[in-house]
UniProtKB/TrEMBL annotation:
Lineage: Bacteria, Pseudomonadati, Pseudomonadota, Alphaproteobacteria, Rhodobacterales
Name recorded for this polypeptide: Rieske 2Fe-2S domain-containing protein
Signal peptide, first to last residue: none
Keyword Iron-sulfur: yes
Keywords annotated in UniProt: 2Fe-2S, Iron, Iron-sulfur, Metal-binding
Pfam family name, one: Rieske
GO molecular function: 2 iron, 2 sulfur cluster binding; metal ion binding
SUPFAM superfamilies, per the entry: ISP domain (SSF50022)
Statement: the UniProt record of this protein carries the keyword Cell inner membrane: no
Source organism (scientific name): Tabrizicola oligotrophica
């Protein structure tokens, strides 16, 4: 059975930006694309375990603030070294004025 967790309001994230969302012991990032879709993935870089909440959204990727590794925010794929391990992504829905992720 899906476990949908309210992460934020859509207006909490500007287009082409992200926010950090913590739930229990897990850290996620929620990305709002420039075409107004929402995406969720692990919020910790797979390279050196740095929080991606201060990362940069650009060209369909999130860039790690420490060593500039990038990840596709739609698939979690590691796109640029030094990261070589993909991140998990999570289903997202916008409903009743809130962004939810399924964990």
């Amino acid at each position: 059975m899906p476990n949908w967790i309210r992460a934020c309001a859509p207006d909490d994230i500007e287009p082409d930006d992200l926010i950090r969302f913590d739930h229990g012991s897990q850290t996620f990032i929620i990305v709002r694309s420039e075409d107004d879709t929402f995406h969720a993935m692990d919020g910790i870089c797979s390279h050196e375990k740095v929080h991606l909440g201060d990362g940069l959204v650009m060209d369909g990727t999130v860039e790690c603030p420490k060593h500039n590794a990038t990840f596709c925010y739609k698939t979690g794929e590691a796109k640029r070294a030094p990261a070589c391990v993909n991140l998990r992504t999570f289903p997202v829905k916008v409903e009743d004025g809130a962004v939810y992720i399924e964990i």
